[in-house]
Design a protein that fits this description.
This protein is an alpha/beta fold. It has one domain: Rossmann fold (3-Layer(aba) Sandwich), CATH 3.40.50.450. The protein has a seven-stranded parallel β-sheet with strand order 4-3-2-1-5-6-7, sandwiched between helices. Helix 6 links the parallel strand 5 and strand 6. Helix 3 runs parallel beside helix 4 and helix 3 packs parallel to helix 8. It is globular. The N and C termini lie far apart (67 Å).
Amino acid sequence: MSLPDVPARAPRSPDEELLGAQLPTVRADLDDGQRTARATEELETGFRTLADLGRAISIFGSARVPQDAPEYALARETARRLGEAGCAIITGGGPGLMEAANRGAQDAGATSVGLNIVLPFEQAPNPYQDIGLLFDFFFTRKVMFVRYSSAFVVFPGGYGTLDELFEALVLIQTEKIDDFPVVLVGVDFWSPLVDWIRGRLVDDALISADDPALFVVTDDVEEIVRTVVHGCAQQWALPE
């Protein structure tokens, strides 16, 4: 039994063209060198734009949280406090909790960075950015988050938020990057996941017993700021 022929169609986006180029349904007039050149251009633009950013904290969270939600106010306050501590704030540049964090950075007079990505929904750039970059590729955008961050602060979110969180934990666990603070904000939201990590991954010996210590879970802005500032001081060899 053979597979049916699939009609060719144009790729819907540059990342689909790159990642799905082996599929018969995705065809474009580009060779692999041209495809990788697009990604290289995004990396070089990001490196050039953010080269002098200094200490920065990436704040992640859902694009779907409205402005009147308590999580929005907490993300804005957290970003303001971290900005006052001398850190730039990096977000995904979209609405919801990303907007709240960029807004909090501007409240503090700190540099507010948005790493926007072209998506068919959700990702409209928020107006609270001093530096805005636009990416076609998720992986080039992820490089910017890790390369220029001294800590990750992760508010409640969906698949995208979880993706950034676990990618950071993998990089730290495997020593691909220096250990930096990872703070999960929202005890009620994150506790079921943390219980599963400890009750299944640790108990089944799928991760080490001390791997859950790679992150902190809290609702307290003071603890967030203290954890991040302490981690930045160690990473940058600066007095706390």
